[in-house]
Structure formats: structure tokens, C-alpha cells
Write a structure and sequence with these properties.
The protein is an alpha/beta fold. The protein contains ten helices and twelve strands. Strands 8-7-6-9-10-12-11 form a seven-stranded mixed sheet, with helices on both faces. Strands 2-1-3-4-5 form a five-stranded mixed sheet, with helices on one face. The longest helix is centred in the middle third of the chain and has 14 residues. 36% of the residues are buried. Bound molecules: S-adenosylmethionine. S-adenosylmethionine binds next to helix 5, strand 7 and helix 8.
Length: 259
């Protein structure tokens, strides 16, 4: 039901554009999945937003800019020394982890937080409910698998297009950590939104059910829930965490459920 609502929101606003005939079958499947039209490049300008598929992968485009996930730009942050100073990595740290610690990123977005966790050894299960964002992320992960130094990391990233409120309530495994980074009200206007993500923000829906999301995360039984918030933002669903790590602009609230 939710998917249909979202797809209806795309119709007329977004089209899939195929750049190269050899990608036509894939483009047809994508357009069907999104409930949008598939058009060739001559009709692309009829739509304010386009998902363009071709040799270069999948990217999102409007009349001013285009964006595509690119994990290679994060490679410098993925060295063991640099990972140690990443706030998210410090927030997600757990004592005596399983041989392979398991994280769920319940608000995957473009997967950057998940990449950091996968780089420091977590097997990461990502959930993203927006089908366009999920398609862009899937393509980013797929392209990264071919990149030296990223392939081994991204093979630990498993994306599913789903609403986490449902998915977390029904997980077939017990995660060590659940990460929550729902878009907070007012974020679109905030200086925190990097230019490269402005296009994506046209698609993101602010979290309307943050209490349900947090309750589903608790129900999944992790040792820890890590919540990304703006530095001065309210606690998610008003629940006070055990502790917070604070940076210049953001804060990680950590709720401890098991030690
Ligand atoms: C602020 S972005 C997350 C950015 C991400 N942490 C990163 O590193 O790229 C929030 C994302 O969560 C998704 N989202 C919000 N609520 C969700 C839910 N209940 N289930 C799945 N995805 C959700 C939104 O569509 C959006 O893409």
C-alpha cells in the first residue's frame, strides 16, 4: 500500500531514461517497479526528475544537476587509522563482539554510514523504503564491488527495499547494533545537507513514525541502538539514551539494551 502511495507520487514527476539500448531490459524492469514511464533521451526534459541508466550506471538528474552514489570518494575515510576517529564507528563499538558483528542500518539512504560499519568489519543489513533511493544505492554497491579496496567491504553490505518498521519486527537474526538516521524535521533547509545530496532530498520523506521505528528497533533485540541526530535536536521519540557522542554538527545517541 505504502509503495503504491510512493509510486503515485513519482508518476508524472520522474521517468526512467535509458542511455544505451543494451540496458533497455533492465530499464523496463526498473520503470515497472517504480510505476513510472520509461522514455528515451529525446523526451527526458518532459520530466523534472530522471533516473538515467546506462554504461555509467544509474544516476538521478534534474535540469541543474545530477547525482550518483560514489563510495570511492569515501575511501580515504576507510583506512583502519581513519576509521578509529569516525564518530559513528566509535558510537557503534561493542565489547566482545561475535566473530562477525552484525549491524542493521534501518534508514540506509545512500549507504555512507553502512559503508563505514562494513569497513570496520560489520556484516551490514540495510533497509531503505524509498524505491528510487534503494535503486541508486543498489547500483552504488554493485559498482563498488568492482573497485579495488571496496569490493571486500561492500560484499558485507546487504540491501533490501523495505520499511524497517516491518522488517525490524521480523528479523531472522539477532543484530548487535541497529543504526537509525531518519530525516529530522527541517533538515532539508539545514546547512547539514551537502550539495551532492540536494537531489536525493527531493525524494526523502521525513520520518512520520519515529516512535514506531524506535520500538521496532528495540523489538529486534540488538545490544545497542545508535541514533544520528542534529547536535541540538530532540531525542528520537523523546527517549533519553544511555549516553551521546557529540561532534560539531551532529550527535550520536546510544541506547544500550544488552551488554
Ligand atoms: C537521512 S537519510 C539516511 C542517510 C544515511 N545514514 C547515509 O549514510 O547515507 C534517511 C533515509 O532513511 C529512509 N527511511 C526513513 N524511514 C525509513 C523506514 N521506516 N524504513 C526504511 N527506510 C527509511 C529515507 O527514505 C532516507 O533515505
Amino acid at each position: 500500500m505504502e509503495d503504491q502511495k510512493q509510486n503515485a507520487a513519482y508518476s508524472g514527476r520522474l521517468a526512467v531514461v535509458v542511455e544505451d539500448e543494451s540496458f533497455e531490459e533492465e530499464a523496463i524492469r526498473l520503470a515497472e517497479h517504480l510505476g513510472t514511464l520509461l522514455v528515451d533521451q529525446s523526451r527526458a526534459d518532459d520530466f523534472p526528475l530522471r533516473l538515467v541508466l546506462g554504461e555509467r550506471g544509474l544516476f538521478l538528474q534534474d535540469n541543474d544537476m545530477q547525482m550518483q552514489g560514489d563510495f570511492t570518494q569515501m575511501q580515504k575515510r576507510l583506512t583502519p587509522a581513519n576509521l578509529k576517529s569516525e564518530m559513528l564507528v566509535r558510537a557503534a563499538r561493542i565489547k566482545n563482539p561475535q566473530t562477525t558483528p552484525v549491524a542493521v542500518d534501518a534508514t540506509a539512504g545512500m549507504g555512507e554510514d553502512s559503508l563505514l560499519l562494513a569497513a570496520c568489519g560489520f556484516e551490514v543489513f540495510l533497509y531503505e523504503y524509498d524505491p528510487v533511493i534503494a535503486a541508486l544505492l543498489q547500483d552504488t554497491i554493485r559498482r563498488s564491488k568492482e573497485v579495488h579496496g571496496l569490493g571486500q567491504i561492500t560484499q558485507r553490505m546487504h540491501l533490501k527495499e523495505a520499511d524497517s518498521v516491518t522488517a525490524l519486527s521480523d528479523l531472522p537474526f539477532l543484530p548487535d547494533v541497529v543504526i537509525l538516521d531518519p530525516m529530522f524535521p527541517g533538515r532539508q533547509k539545514s546547512g547539514l545537507v551537502k550539495k551532492k545530496f540536494q537531489l536525493i532530498h527531493q525524494l526523502e520523506r521525513p520520518c512520520e513514525n519515529e516512535r514506531d521505528l524506535l520500538e521496532a528497533a528495540i523489538k529486534a533485540g540488538p545490544r545497542k541502538i545508535v541514533i544520528k541526530r542534529p547536535l541540538k535536536g530532540p531525542y528520537l521519540a523523546g527517549i533519553r539514551p544511555a549516553y551521546s557522542l557529540e561532534g560539531k554538527k551532529i550527535r550520536y545517541d546510544c541506547i544500550i539494551l544488552r551488554v
